[in-house]
Amino acid sequence: MDFDLSPETEEMRDMVVRFAQRELTTPAEFDTEDFRRRWRSAGQQGLVGSCVPRAYGGSGLDAVEAAATMEALGFGCEDTGFAFSVAAHLFAAVMPVVEFGTEEQKKRWLPALGSGELIAAHCITEPEAGSDTLRLRTRATRDGAGYRLDGHKCFTTNSPVADLFIVQAATDPGGGFFGLTTFVVEAGTPGLSVGQRYDKVGLRGSPMADVYFDGCVVPDTQVLGAEGSGAAIFSCSMKWERTCLFAAYLGAMKRVLDSTVAHVREREQFGTPIGAFQAVSHRVVDMMARHEAARLLLYKAARGLADGTDDEIGPALAKIAVSEAAVQLGLDAVQLRGALGVLDGEAECLLRDALPARIFSGTNEIQKNNVARALGLNPPRRSAKRR
Ligand SMILES: Cc1cc2nc3c(=O)[nH]c(=O)nc-3n(C[C@H](O)[C@H](O)[C@H](O)COP(=O)(O)OP(=O)(O)OC[C@H]3O[C@@H](n4cnc5c(N)ncnc54)[C@H](O)[C@@H]3O)c2cc1C
């Protein structure tokens, strides 16, 4: 496989790094106004709509180019939470509109979603339906020329600031894969409300809350795809997320790896730089090997997505590899800094930001189940009661 990026993509990557280092500095505390300012600025750079087609005002990047952009954002932007929010918007909420929206829906929402004017959130997880995504309790029932949504979503990234919600609800409870339908719901729609912003251990720059639907009526024109195609839409958005979103972690890991190498070169104990001790240098090499291996898996998955030759295995392996490497790299970076590592700083920050990566986008255990199933090693997915 050819892993070289085109000169244009390399140039774009450098530009994103410079932009992020200059404009996306980490605020001391989460602040909605500042978040919106940075979001609009990232929109002007084409980052929040990077793979929206040019016809709808986006940059028209393919999955490899989008991954390169996200990697650059993760490297340049020390606030990995902000990069995560951008990626969650783009891959879990905007790409479903790109891939399944009608012409009218695309014209209505994509230009503003790509320019940074609108922020999107993706709602599937519920208190009783985390990994078991087909058993949603949020119901969508027919109501005149639309549907009435009732239910409770949780852990919804971007929801405290979102203008648009991509919502999965059960139109046929117990209908398995064909029981879910996807809706686009605009903020301000009666019956939609958002809870208090959570305090999280990591990704603190990414706002998250619960979302409630209480008799929220959505017209037919805001159904994405056909009724019953929600699970297929969700699977498709997760392929994007498990591949391109995780590229932001590759960038963050590289940033911390570089500063770790600098630290072990400079820090002296016993009259010599600590990097000269084999226990230290081998740990650095292990960090590098994990980062590099995860990176190759991710770009392989992105190439499959760009070429249309993707399967379920590539994105799952990339997701597992990047998230596990990020956690281990965070631990190693803390250890190699000694006591400095447990002070507020980029090593402990990477570790905290990496922990959720093993959970969101489908936990790593669920990814292993998916790969095992693709290998014929565990029971098939629950089938629908009909169709
Ligand atoms: C930072 C962050 C951002 C998120 N953003 C969003 C968002 O924007 N929108 C959204 O809808 N959701 C979001 N989520 C929620 C996320 O998708 C869920 O947390 C995830 O799917 C796991 O569900 P759960 O937390 O209920 O864990 P559970 O499903 O309760 O799992 C608990 C543990 O049991 C294991 N487990 C469960 N079932 C199996 C099984 N069959 N085999 C083996 N192990 C199993 C899991 O792997 C895990 O270790 C986010 C989560 C985080 C942490």
From TrEMBL:
Please list the residue ranges annotated as the Acyl-CoA dehydrogenase/oxidase C-terminal domain. 228-375
The UniProt keyword set, sorted, is: FAD, Flavoprotein, Oxidoreductase
Q: Which residues form the signal peptide?
A: none
Please verify whether the record's keywords include Ribonucleoprotein.
Answer: no
Coiled-coil intervals, chain numbering? none
Query: What are the Acyl-CoA oxidase/dehydrogenase middle domain coordinates in residue numbering?
Result: 122-216
- Which cofactors does this gene product need? FAD
Ranges where the Acyl-CoA dehydrogenase/oxidase N-terminal domain occurs = 6-117
Family membership: Belongs to the acyl-CoA dehydrogenase family.
Q: What is this protein called?
A: Acyl-CoA dehydrogenase family protein
Origin species = Streptomyces spirodelae
Q: What is the lineage of its organism?
A: Bacteria, Bacillati, Actinomycetota, Actinomycetes, Kitasatosporales
